[in-house]
Amino acid sequence: MPKKRSGGGLSPAQQAAKFLGVSVLAGAVLAGIALPAFGALGLAAKGSVESFDELPANLKTPPLSQRTTILDADGGQIATVYSRDRTVVSLKDMSPYVQKAIVAIEDSRFYQHGAVDMKGVLRALNKNVQSSGVAQGASTLTQQYVKNVFVEEAGDDPTKVAQATQQTLGRKIKELKFAIQVEEELGKKKILENYLNITFFGEQAYGVEAAAQRYFSKHAKDLNLQESALLAGIVQSPSRYDPVNDEEEATKRRNTVLARMAEVGDVSRAEADKAMKAPLGLKPSRPKNGCITAVKGAGFFCDYVRQVFLSDPVFGETSEARAKVWNQGGLTIRTTMDPQAQESAQDSIKSHVYKSDDVATAATIVQPGTGKVLAMGQSRPYGIDTKDHQTTINLSVNQSMGGGAGYQPGSTFKPIVAAAALEGGTPATQSYSSPYEMDYPSPVSVCNGKTWRNDPNNPAKLTNEDESEHGPYSMKEATAKSVNTYYVQMISDIGICPVVELAKKMGVSRADGNKIVQAPSIALGTQEMSPLTMANAYATFASRGMYCTPVAIESITQTVGSQKKSLQVPKSTCTRAMSPTTADTVSTLLKGVVEDGTGQQAGLGSRPSAGKTGTTDNRYAAWFVGYTPNMAGAVWVGDPTHKRRMIGINIGGIGYEKVYGGEVPGPIWRDMMNGALQGKPAPDFNLVNIPDGDKNKGRGNDDGNNGDPGRGGDNGSLFGGLLNGGTDGGGNNNGGNNGGSFPSPTFSLPEGLFQGNGNGNGNGHGGRGRG
């Protein structure tokens, strides 16, 4: 007697023999199902056998794509993302009712036949001949499973999906051969389990577990009879039988399934009748997919995690390989996000800047010494509904990571100049003449042994806050008051290259990916940066000179089927950017900014803090970047499109004649950091003693009018080297003289207005680099 497997159905030998014995008939049947005309039967049968023999022997089953869960540092859920909302479960975690219901309605002879149900094929052929069309199909559950594998393998590619589902003889033959292989290798129970995990149930739910959650907010193992019948009925046409959108049609289909279950003896007629009278009992849950569902306003942090995954080679050598892993899903990603810091950042943002304001704000917090990104938020919500002021542009990060082109940081760049000078041997007591107004000093050395020169015929000038502000100033006082002429004299004295090289060691780069233009005006913050870049740079000061690359992912666990494995994740690389003494000196200088200078509104009370304000002259951007020994944060406020100047403007319901870094970003930073640091230690800095110095020994050229006529870059910007000019270039952008009770800002032209491609070092100079 032929030997049978425990799962039911014929043995592999029987199955193969049966298929070969009826190959011509099967070909004819397939043609009959797919093609109403009988004339093609002979040719189709011949073609079916040849095609069958040429097919590969094994079905390559891709891992089922599942949802990915993104967690914060404490293990709380931030968001779920997926290309397929699916949670794979074993057969024991599926209600027996749903197992019986799907078999009854889709393939009631599942346990009696093999991969191909010849009785079903002949029945379908007879029906289709009578109707002169395709009135009935004959696919077994095994064949349907194989087709779903093809669809899963096609992913989101519409062309591949169409090929996987097209009603052609070739596809049916391929499906048949692989169905035989699957029956041989898996057995009935495993096929049923796989089918219930892979099939689509509508409403973005793939697999019975996701469907149970979507329609009834329960696990698949807890489904009752009528609920199971409803889900089983949906499979044939998820859109037509969608109970959320058409309850009447779904009820009819459910009752059809119940009647079939009674007919095949899975339930009694009384049980079926009772279930038919029950309401659908829907308790639907909304699909929750993507960073738009993130909690605590962490949509942009969530998106940053996605960008890290898709761009870091640790997750795959090519972008295609990384995207495949991401879309496959099944990942549990534990991130560095501190829920307390994130909530505090978003609360502070909301209380100071409305999402409907003409300008926006973005804020980022990092942990010194580790590079961990603790919080990331902005005033305009994550999403695509522009009417609700939503955006998917992450204003906190560089353009390559989903951000914009960046924003001029103004005077928040000055501490980097100070650190470069200190590293080069300039004493912390250094004084410069620091006049109210002066020409940019010239010549100034840049990298590669070249020089930048001002144009003696039309020299570029800069000014301080007002005419009453003039030196000589020491480094401490010049930093507290954010004196422009002091810092331009300093960078002219030490050269531009040390500043550029130190900036690189601190991870400071332009947000648009271009190189920093080597001109004295970089001391006043004319190069566009992102908040994450500036926060992490200041974290270098907080960690006493150690720069750590930013990281957002702590660990990743990947689930493939029932197997789990840990994936390698990017690690922060920490290197010494400057000596501890230099970092401590800068911290001492910036502590004075918060206590007695332009950043007093950002002070944290008794908790030691340090920071720097920054504002651009046209009021397109205002900043506060600061830190404590255990957290560093940056806050930017401005118009992302660089069109709205912050003059005569309402922000967060408060009117401002002019916006300054200490006035709007400062309080945002203060409230954000107070909440983020609540309950955490309050260590002090390693301060150094900085004497006031001899102001009468200030160095520097008051006007800087020496130097040869320069030229713009070879491919310079408009007005040849006005902003991004060339080697030895010296354009001109005279600063204005607007004074006021707050420090004046850096630059008098809109960000990115003139961005050329010169190869040299023209001067992007301007008005004032005050906070």
UniProtKB/TrEMBL annotation:
Taxonomic path: Bacteria, Bacillati, Actinomycetota, Actinomycetes, Kitasatosporales
Ranges annotated as biased composition (Gly residues): 707-739, 755-771
Transmembrane segments: 20-45
Domain of life, per lineage: Bacteria
Protein name (database record): Transglycosylase domain-containing protein
Catalytic activity: [GlcNAc-(1->4)-Mur2Ac(oyl-L-Ala-gamma-D-Glu-L-Lys-D-Ala-D-Ala)](n)-di-trans,octa-cis-undecaprenyl diphosphate + beta-D-GlcNAc-(1->4)-Mur2Ac(oyl-L-Ala-gamma-D-Glu-L-Lys-D-Ala-D-Ala)-di-trans,octa-cis-undecaprenyl diphosphate = [GlcNAc-(1->4)-Mur2Ac(oyl-L-Ala-gamma-D-Glu-L-Lys-D-Ala-D-Ala)](n+1)-di-trans,octa-cis-undecaprenyl diphosphate + di-trans,octa-cis-undecaprenyl diphosphate + H(+); Preferential cleavage: (Ac)2-L-Lys-D-Ala-|-D-Ala. Also transpeptidation of peptidyl-alanyl moieties that are N-acyl substituents of D-alanine
GO biological process: cell wall organization; peptidoglycan biosynthetic process; proteolysis; regulation of cell shape
Domain called Glycosyl transferase family: residue spans: 77-261
InterPro entries to which the protein is assigned, alphabetical: Beta-lactam/transpept-like, Glyco_trans_51, Glycosyltr_51/Transpeptidase, Lysozyme-like_dom_sf, PBP_transglycosylase, PCN-bd_Tpept
Biased composition (Basic and acidic residues): 692-702
Stretch forming the signal peptide: none
Disordered: annotated span: 450-473, 683-771
The entry's keywords: Carboxypeptidase, Cell shape, Cell wall biogenesis/degradation, Glycosyltransferase, Hydrolase, Membrane, Multifunctional enzyme, Peptidoglycan synthesis, Protease, Transferase, Transmembrane, Transmembrane helix
